[in-house]
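Chain A, query sequence.
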Amino acid sequence: MQAFQYHTPTDVAGAAAALGTDGARLLAGGQSLLPAMRLGLAAPEALVDLGRVPGLSAITVDAQHVTVGAMARHAEVAAHAGVAKAIPALADLAGHIGDRQVRHRGTLGGSLANNDPAACYPAGVLGLGATVVTNRREIAADAFFKGLYETALAEGEVITAVRFPIPQRAAWQKFKQPASRFSLVGVFVSQGPAGVRVAVTGAGACVFRATELEARLAKAWAASSLDGATVSADGLNSDLHGSAEYRAALIPVLAKRAVQASGG
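Chain A, predicted structure.
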């Protein structure tokens, strides 16, 4: 691991300023970046640690939204009584990310900024039609995820929170890769203020919406609406864990299970 500068800002403005230096990367939970650095896959010239910035881990719940700070740990989201009551599917998703160590160190903001193609949180954000709040603007989930490890974040932009609309119903189903516990395929379904949404992770270059399945569920929110549904394998991931065709076959199966889990 090469030498690097280490910044510990105490506010978001300071973090954004330090991030503006050449070769700087934000450090949230470090569950993706630090292993990449150890393997020589990432070599930032500076790390900007968000751990001392107050307020970034707050979780609040009101009548319409659950707002989760960017530095909230997965375990904190999973254990939060307000989240479990308002959006139990989100608490369920957070409670099954990785293992205990990852859940107690990994953060919502770090997961979204990294945008791993098999990460769980992007499915919850896109599947609920959430809004990503940064130090500069608000970004709708549909505009945030751009591609493989690519997001709409601009240089010097810092995620501060994510605002989730409370749905009428929602559920999460994950077919995990047993060693990494990432999603081989994961499907998040919801019906609520953002309409009917089916978000898929693990199957493509990044999280995406299964619009064909959404159209069926918009007509009737019932598992039977997905009987005989298929998803094209074109453009899906194919690797030693599963072919594109295998992932395509899993998507409607998991979506159907998720609708059943939501009470549909």
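The CA atoms of residues 25 and 47 lie 5 Å apart. The radius of gyration is 18 Å.
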